[in-house]
Design a protein that fits this description.
Blueprint lengths: L1 H5 L13 H10 L6 E2 L5 H6 L4 H8 L17 E2 L4 E2 L7 H15 L6 E6 L6 H12 L4 E7 L2 E2 L2 E2 L10 H6 L3 E6 L3 H17 L4 E6 L17 H8 L3 H11 L5 H24 L7 H6 L16 E5 H15 L3 E5 L15 H9 E3 L4 H13 L3 E5 L10 H8 L2 H5 L5 E7 L14 H5 L5 E3 L4 H13 L4 E6 L7 E5 L11 E4 L4 E5 L2 H12 L5 E5 L2 E3 L3 H11 L2 E8 L4 H13 L8 E5 L8 H7 L2 H13 L1
Parallel strand pairs: 1-4, 4-5, 5-9, 8-9, 11-12, 11-13, 13-14, 14-16, 15-16, 19-20, 19-22, 22-23
Antiparallel strand pairs: 2-3, 6-7, 10-17, 15-21, 18-20
Helix pairs in contact: 2-8, 4-11, 5-6, 5-15, 6-15, 13-19, 15-16, 21-22
The structure holds thiamine diphosphate.
Length: 629
């Protein structure tokens, strides 16, 4: 790899020289169907699993024969064929994903171990603490391998952590910690082999600290000036490959001829691999394929069987969708804070524990990031999940997992992400800045996610069922103020409402109102109270991908449009919709498009301030002005 780098055939390389015994020892000790989640220095994981070298070279050079169609670099790849899930650059999120993979094994009663790697630097990330804690609390069969190599990029251990050794941290999480000489492959192999056998019998996490040293720069271009020379001398004498070779020769297991033979064979294999890669054509960009690969194919709509419809509150429609989905999919798991015995902060999962058991209805520790990562891991290993944010506001603590892991995985390596994140959202209940926010616009900008936001009980049920059936990550927004305040007729059987389709709630000719969520109810109320305005009222229902066709059709018909949302105005979804209308309907417009949103402030607590913040009253004025324009 270093030669290729010098030849300019490779853009970046993170060398694992000095640390080979860890990747190779761990991978050799696991069974081939057990998942490994490596980091940027773990070449040995990929080679020991037997991935043909040409496929690795194609991955590293962005050729079609790699694992990501040229969409991601180096080890940022996954392959279910080889049971390897590569990293995203943020390092720590790997560990939550490992939890999910292990949980899927545990629930399916497969006696397997998952091994996840981290550097010592990444142990400073919150994801490390969250994931290790979840694994400890849930007895997940994960080996957390810390490669303690003295530096996190240029930062020495003394500036990264205060503990003497990482196994001391294991004590704090109530789990076993084992420390090995990471430069001794036999010690690594024997330890992991013994641990894995024991964990398969008695599932539990173990923290394995491998003491080692990084003999090259963080990546090749960054050099090693900050490392005292004597450390290279000391650790150079502990080179894991050289020492193992010497050991085998001293024991009479191999001789110099054998070493030469193996080296020649490997050289030949490398050259053959490179030849195949270099003969491969370069990737030719195709925009349609790029866009299509953002999402896994969604299943067909499930129509009602014509069962009775029953009047239900918004919240009860949500509960019913989840309950029926849990009966339909034995591999579906619900996770969230206080969702089991307590039934959830809003009681959406009341009674679920009794029907579906503790395995599938899981109270989580307070750790959004690890749990969302866990959802991805479950999906990779064949399970489905619904994750309840206690309040949509708390999604900030799991933001990275959503926008970088859930959203990008299918595009990067074709893995479906069968996760629904439930988001009890919105204001109007005088709950202040941290229990009232509208957060949908944060996710609207992220390709790879779907966002649904129902306004009526029937859609709440149908869209949640659709989100659960959909193999893509779906952010499901449910307005808290609607939970118990509105009711509607809902089919009793299981059905799905197509994601991506808006609904024309009212029809008229004077103007179009485009809105969603609580906005739909504000608009209905306004139209009821104002005589003489004949409006199309479009409930978007899905925000990503939003139904441009229905919106454009309505605006072309009426020639005037107001876009209303509860969210703050600047950067809200209304801006994007307005822009599209301006682009596509300009010749049809009889008035400038109007946007109506909340004040650009946090959501204030007192009811008077909150009413002033929300756009409900301003909407009526703007609506009248638009009608009169
Ligand atoms: C969240 C995040 N912050 C910063 C970085 C930049 N970065 C990449 S690797 C690295 C150091 C990692 O150190 P360590 O975990 O010890 O792994 P090592 O490279 O030593 O194997 C840093 C700071 C990153 N990738 N992700």
């Amino acid at each position: 790899m270093l030669v290729l780098l010098r030849q300019g055939k490779l853009s970046k390389w993170f060398s694992g020289i000095g640390q080979e015994a860890i990747s190779v020892g761990v991978t050799s000790a696991l069974q081939k169907e057990e998942y490994l989640l490596p980091m940027h220095r773990n070449l040995g994981v990929f080679t020991v699993r037997g991935i043909p070298l040409n496929r690795l070279f194609s991955q590293f050079t962005g050729k079609p024969g790699g694992f990501t169609k040229g969409r991601d670099r180096s080890f940022h790849m996954g392959t279910k064929e080889f049971h390897i899930v590569g990293m995203i650059s943020h390092l720590g999120p790997q560990m939550g994903v490992a939890d999910g993979i292990a949980l899927a094994d545990l629930l399916a009663k497969r006696a397997q171990v998952t091994a996840v790697f981290t550097g010592d630097g990444a142990t400073s990330e919150g994801d490390f603490h969250e994931s290790i804690n979840v694994a400890a609390v849930w007895n997940l069969p994960v080996i957390f391998i810390i490669e303690n190599n003295g530096y996190g990029l240029s930062t020495p251990s003394s500036e990264q952590f205060r503990c003497k050794q990482f196994i001391d941290k294991a004590i704090g999480y109530g789990m076993e910690g084992v420390k090995v000489d990471g430069n001794n492959i036999l010690e690594v192999y024997n330890t992991v082999d013994k641990l894995a056998r024991s964990i398969r019998e008695n599932p539990r996490p173990v923290l394995l600290e491998c003491v080692t040293f990084r003999m090259r720069g963080h990546e090749e271009a960054s050099g090693t000036k900050y490392v005292p020379q004597e450390l290279f001398e000391v650790w150079g004498r502990k080179d894991p490959v050289r020492n193992f070779e010497d050991f085998l020769i001293a024991e009479g297991v191999i001789d110099a001829d054998f070493v030469n033979l193996v080296r020649a064979e490997i050289k030949e294999e490398i050259e053959q691999g490179l030849e195949i890669t270099f003969a491969e054509k370069d990737i030719v960009p195709d925009t349609a394929t790029e866009l299509q690969d953002m999402y896994a194919a969604a299943p067909a709509v499930i129509h009602t069987t014509g069962s009775a419809t029953v009047e239900k509150r918004f919240l009860d429609a949500i509960t019913e969708a989840m309950q029926q989905a849990m009966r339909r999919h034995p591999n579906l798991v619900i996770m969230g804070q206080d969702i089991a015995e307590y039934g959830g902060a809003f009681k959406a999962t009341q009674g679920f524990l009794e029907e579906f058991g503790k395995g599938r209805v899981r109270n989580t520790p307070l750790c959004e990031s690890a749990i969302i990562g866990c959802g991805l891991g479950l999906s990779i290993n064949g399970a489905k999940s619904i994750i309840e944010m206690q309040f949509a506001d708390f999604v900030t603590c799991g933001f990275n997992q959503i926008v970088n892991n859930l959203a990008k995985t299918h595009y990067r390596w074709g893995q479906n992400v069968d996760v629904v994140v439930r988001m009890p959202t919105g204001a109007g209940v005088a709950a202040g800045p941290f229990h009232s926010q509208s957060t949908e616009a944060w996710f609207f900008h992220v390709p790879g996610l779907k966002i649904v936001y129902p306004a009526f009980p029937e859609d709440a049920k149908g869209l949640l069922a659709a989100a659960i059936e959909d193999p893509n990550p779906v952010m499901y927004f449910e307005h808290k103020a609607l939970y118990r305040s509105i009711s509607g007729m809902v089919p009793e059987d299981y059905f799905t409402t197509e994601i991506g389709k808006a609904k024309l709630v009212r029809e008229g000719n004077d103007l179009s109102i485009i809105t969603y969520g609580l906005g739909v109810h504000w608009a209905m109320e306004a139209l009821d109270n104002l005589s003489g305005i004949s409006a199309d009222l479009v409930d978007l229902r899905t925000l990503l991908p939003w139904d441009e066709v229905t919106v454009i059709q309505s605006v072309k018909k009426t020639g005037k449009v107001i876009i209303l949302h509860e969210d703050t105005l600047t950067g809200g979804i209304g801006g994007e919709i307005t822009a599209r209308i301006a682009e596509k309907c300009f010749p049809y417009l009889d008035a400038p498009p109007v946007r109506c949103g909340a004040l650009d402030t946090p959501v204030p607590m007192s009811a008077a301030l909150e009413n002033n913040f929300l756009p409900k009253e301003r909407f009526i004025q703007q609506l009248k002005q638009l009608a009169a324009y």
